[in-house]
Description:
The structure is a homodimer. Chain A has helices spanning 2-5, 20-30, 50-56, 65-68, 80-88, 98-121, 131-134, 136-143, 186-195, 197-205, 211-219, 222-238; strands spanning 42-47, 71-78, 125-129, 149-158, 176-178. Chain A is an alpha+beta fold. Chain A has a 4-stranded antiparallel sheet, with helices on both faces. In chain A, helix 2 (20-30) packs across helix 6. In chain A, 51% of the residues are buried. The interface between A and B is large, with 114 and 114 residues.
Amino acid sequence: MDSLRNRKSIRKYSNKEVSEELLNSLLTDAFRASNTGNMQTYSVIVTRSEQQKEKLLPFHFNQPSIKTAPVVLTFCVDFRRFSRWCVESGAEPGYNNYLSFYSATIDSMLAAQTFAVAAEDAGLGLCFFGTTNYNAEGIIDALELPELVFPVTTVTVGWPAENPSQSDRLDPLGLIHQETYKDVDVKALYAYKESLPEMQKFVEENGKPSLAHVFTDVRYTKANNEFFSDALLKAIKRQGFIF
Amino acid sequence: MDSLRNRKSIRKYSNKEVSEELLNSLLTDAFRASNTGNMQTYSVIVTRSEQQKEKLLPFHFNQPSIKTAPVVLTFCVDFRRFSRWCVESGAEPGYNNYLSFYSATIDSMLAAQTFAVAAEDAGLGLCFFGTTNYNAEGIIDALELPELVFPVTTVTVGWPAENPSQSDRLDPLGLIHQETYKDVDVKALYAYKESLPEMQKFVEENGKPSLAHVFTDVRYTKANNEFFSDALLKAIKRQGFIF
């Protein structure tokens, strides 16, 4: 599919509104994605108001598109709705555990990425935010997420007002393993990426000996990863998933 | 997109081969999906051999399509390749933590679902297997996954040899929340599902008082969820993600 192969993340949006009708139609497509036992254990929170965007902003490290996008979507694990249905049916739900959390994460992502494909096919631009996993607790408060509801990923959505060049990707054959896992020659696999002028500029600007050092020492450091791991685990437990 | 809205999972496949060329082309599309910091921390294991399918089969609870599908794909978190590149570049990777594991799970799912959309658009049929999260340890052994590699989801792929009716979905408005999370009337939301003849048959066959009881007492029980939660957490730790 050309639309999949040519896609790029869009962070700048025009003022044109994204109608509730279009958004609901795209989410309806998203909810047709595969899911565990057809339990549909996810919810989507739609943020349009300035006030709510202001609340979310710091938890996305003040990335401006949270404010400038007409719509911000937060895809959430939701075992609350299903559990409430069980209770109201006189049954006893047992979904406050790690397996339920992890499988609902997978189902949330199946819906989120189906939404993304449908939205891009409709001409919309979007960007995923990994910050949701860094600051889950703040997002939980901002969106008033109750027990058994957990924010998995955030997507900003709008009509594109930029046309960036496509980012690089590794040779796909380096990611595909026949029958069993085999180590690849990583220096050869990463040679193209390391050769790109924008990557060399990135290394120079950060004053690092290699591109890998920019990742380990600046962008995704061990200390930060460990700090935010603790916060993430704490937030999962706070939402009632016991492990 | 009609292809998204009309999709259904396919578990029966014709004998027609899925060529390596087509598969690699679809996976190339999949790897264009959004991902954290463009680190592409995932791998895909392709299972075609009878011997490997036999090994995987018990860990997918002997579901026959694992054997009858021409291709079985296991999408995996892979922080090993990236970490090896860091080490070979003289940098010190710090990705053996829960945040890295969870964000790579999300990135694996973005790729997996993009693959699914591309494959279905090409006329292939597929089915996701949640069993991967139940029996991760067995799958790790069968696919020889080393440290920092973890199986997230499995997809069987082939040319459709069945045309099942589409499964039901909840009213999408019950899953979409404006600005903040709000509880919905669950009995009203589930009334349509509960009214379906196949669901009523399901309740009767299981001798349960309600459809919810079939989920809590038969399909996804608290005891099983807790048992498999422990196994899942153990497997994540075994692969070197510390938490």
